Write the structure tokens for this entry.
Amino acid sequence: MIIPIVRTAIIALRRDRVSFVLSFVVPIAFFSIFAVIFGGQHDTVPRVKVIVVDEDRSRVSQQLVKGLESDGSMIVFTAPAPTKSQPSPSDYTAATAEAAVKAGDVSVALIVPRGFGENPISFGPNSDPAKSSPAIQLLNDASDTIAPQMVAGLLQKAAITAMPEAMAEQGMKYTDKYIGGFTPDQRKTMEDSLAQMRQRENTPAAGGDSPDHNGPGSSGFISVHTRSVVGENKKSPMISFYAAAIGVMFLLFTASGSAGALLDEAESGTLDRVLSSRINMTGLLAGKLVFNLLLAFTQLTVMFLWAWAVFKLDFFSHLPGFAVMGLSTAFAVAAFGMLLASLCRTRAQLGALSTLLILVMSAIGGSMFPRFLMPAAMQKAGLWTINAWAIDGFTKVFWRDLPVTALWPQVCVLLAIGIVLFAIARRIANRWEYA
Amino acid sequence: MSANSTPAVSTATPLKVDSLVKRYGQTVAVDGVSLSLAAGECLGLLGPNGAGKSTLIRVIAGRVIPNAGRIEVFGSAAGSQAARAALGWVPQELAIYPRLSSKENLRAFGSYYGLTGKKLNEAVAWCLKWAALEDRAGDLARTLSGGMKRRLNMAAGLIHQPRLVLMDEPTVGVDPQSRNRIFEMIEALRAQGTTIIYTTHYMEEAERLCDRIAIVDHGRVIALDTKEALVKGAFASRSQVLARVEGSPAAVEAWVAQRGGRVVDGTAEFTVEHPSEIAALLESSSSAGLELVDLSLRRPNLESVFLHLTGRELRD
């Protein structure tokens, strides 16, 4: 009795070839994405973007910057990328670096202060704060909890590997000060050693990062003062991020569900009947789009209100930004739903295709984990998703407290996505228009 | 249609179909159909499943684009806004929203035709009364019985008070009691002067409801006239004799062929000018060594006409 049931189910599944294929493609595609992100199979470990401002301009500070630049774990920027209007932009300053962190261009900025080169190392008893080494300022975005710690460690590593002569010289000073001076022979030997170190640093191999050296951490040789310039006053740092990230993912699922209603109507003949009235296909799809948009916006609103009520998200002081981002996101998501409905011919196809697309978009678009943790290539790929632009926009509003005008890139992209997807959906929907 | 409705008076012919052709690949679903309807007339499209009736209806409704031919609804091309407004379509499928109530369904379809306010309310009230669904107005469509769903399906096609109504097998799958209720609805509509095209493969429905009947087979209208004229045209004043005999199949075949009849479902059928010819039939069967089990005399009907014209049963 069981075999006939199984046979019937297999035949039905094979008849719907698209869903049959997708039922195998979905898990493989999803597995591959996670393998790329976490498996490091393409050697694309995420590199931290860091702005370095060298206010000291001393030999020691330049050695340190050079050491940071040569570290494969970081991408160091000392000046903004050239543009058409500014082909050769001037170097970052402390103020512009802080602004860049606030804008989300990078997660971390390092400010090497004036006087750093005179007294770069901070170990040993420090009885005279006035003469202590000026600390390097580490400005960070509190939403990225990993990058500042990583940079602080790499900074210590760079100090050891890139400026050994400075460390040795500093060691001599400490010895002179606290132990009581060198004999002339000792001093000569030390000077010779320092000269050799300087010579080695000037060769190309000098300053290279050795994998055997582990950074001693932010409490190491170089004094570092860490300051969050974004989110330092936030009560719940990641709530807005997750409200947007999870919200967008489920908006996509809802849009796919309401798209299914269109398939039901087509199957039952209701769609045909509606199209025999005064309503044409464009009007029908536009009506469905507006409904999906309102539904998606309401969902987002409810989610953020919940975040406000339960997780203390500062919702009401960001209403304009929320409205702009919410409507833009809802529009793009609604159009995505319309495209899914027009692409699929059965509910089974819709289920498989929407699962594939939504999970992939959510994975690479940052709905499941922040994009800054992903390899650079994956971060770029994420820009092809609705999730990434929506999350970036909501982060600007709720995390960076940026004004509505700063949302124009996200709004423009989301609106463009919505228009393009709807236009494609309308085109494909021709198959329903006339037989 | 409703007491307050004042449909625009038009002298144009409700429907003109000229040389209509619709092909799906190699299959010709509608093959050169031409017909026209007079105001207030009810035309039946009678034919077996797959004859092309529904395709013809869908072309007239503007939902299928024909390969050739022309359709005018009150002088306007099929699919135009004027044609859509004048035309009501009751599809064979239950094309209603299952999660909406009867009243909400009617309001939805009414608004799709641009009805608002008082006009919409009056149209909904008229439709609920016409379909005898007043006491189920608030019930969800999916909770209604099969017959009620059919009636709601019909009412949704009439919500905008069309002057020409296309009904595509509206009694499919309903019990005899519900079918009678639907007949009464259509008769009420006819009494108001609505022009109707009614497709069916039930001869009794066509005979009861329609002024003229078009017999459709393989996408073509093979006969179009009143029931009486169709029967007369096919059989003149002749009657049918149905005889069941027992004997070897070969002997039965030989006897039937000799007497100019045919065997349908094991029953021998003959056409006679006068009942007195029956005696000769009986004699010849006895001579052929066949034993007569049952014999009846029948006036030809539409089924007989269809069989006569196509050589097939109406419900093949």
User: Anything to note?
Assistant: Chain A has a mean pLDDT of 80. The CA atoms of residues 114 and 366 of chain A lie 39 Å apart.
